[in-house]
Every structure is written in C-alpha cells, then in structure tokens.
TrEMBL record:
It comes from Eptatretus burgeri (Inshore hagfish). The keyword Repeat applies. This is Nebulin. One of its GO terms (cellular component) is Z disc. GO terms for biological process: cardiac muscle thin filament assembly. GO terms for molecular function: actin filament binding. Keywords: Actin-binding, Repeat. InterPro entries: NEBU/NEBL, Nebulin-like, Nebulin_repeat.
Amino acid sequence: MNVAKIQSEREYKKAYEKEKTSYQTPVDMLSVILAKKAQALTSNINYKQEFHRYTILPDALSVQQAKMMQELRNDTLYKSDLEWIREMGWIPLGSLDHKKAQRAAEILSENKYRQHPSTVEFTSIPDSPIIIQSKINSQNLNDRLYKAAWNVDKTQIHIMPDTPELLQAKQNAYNTSQARIHSLFPYSTNFTPI
C-alpha cells in the first residue's frame, strides 16, 4: 500500500514539475502586444529606412534652382571670377617696391637659409665643458677601469700567517686529510672522519 502511495505521489510531482515551467497567454493580450511594439522600437532592424527615391526630370524648375543655389554657395566657383586677374600686376624693374620684394624673397628663401649638415664642416672644440664632461662620464662608466683597482688589490692583500683563524683552518685541514687517516689506519677502507 505504501509503495503505491509513494508511486502515485511521484507521478503527481512529475506532472506538476512538467507543467510548472509552461506558461500560456492569449495572443491578443494587451501586455503582449505592447511588449512586441516596445521590442520593435528598441531593435535596430527597422531603425534605418531608406527614403523613397524620386525621379525628377533634369529640366524641372526645382532642379535648376537647386543647382543655381549650390553654385552660389560653392567657394571655388565664387572665387573663379577673379582668377584671370591674378598675377597680372606690373612693377618696373629697379623700382623701390621691386627691390623690397627681391630682398624679402632672399630673406624668406629656404635654400639660402637652411643648409644641409653635410655642406658645413664640423669642428669640435676639444676643451669645451660638454666634451670634458662626456670624457669623465665615459671613464666612470668603463667597466674595465672600474674593476682594475680591485683586481690589483686582491692580489696584493695578504693575511698574516699566524692569525688564529688561519692556524685553526690549517689544523682542521690536517685532521680531515685522507692521507693522514690512511697513514694512521692502513688496513681500514671504510673509515670516514667524524
């Protein structure tokens, strides 16, 4: 009896779990329609729509007026009326204005003002402060000169032969030497000092 009760309860819960997640709404429900409209507004699918392309005859009055307005607003067409006047001025050679213009052209000439570095001879002053400082810096940064003093000093420094540490080290070396151990114990091969 208990088994049947448990079985029926499990079937009941199984059906409940299956139906729990399904939700059904009518298609014409107001909230569903509003949600669809809101989604259509927020999506970018229908955001950009091309306008209808009108075909207008080229000799239509509105097209001709638009072209004329565009020409009036165009700067190049506006200034093209004065192009024929440009560079038509005349100055007599040798006059004051002509000499002023020549002098201004010489001053503003890039060819005369700027010279390529290869055309100028380079001379360095040997005792300028910048050169002296760079020599001092290169000597300070030289690794060989930096270590040379230590290499000389490390061969010149001597330890006094009768210092206690040196005597102790010699005695320790003598006590642990293998030759001395073999001379004391000639028949033992596995003896190691403590």
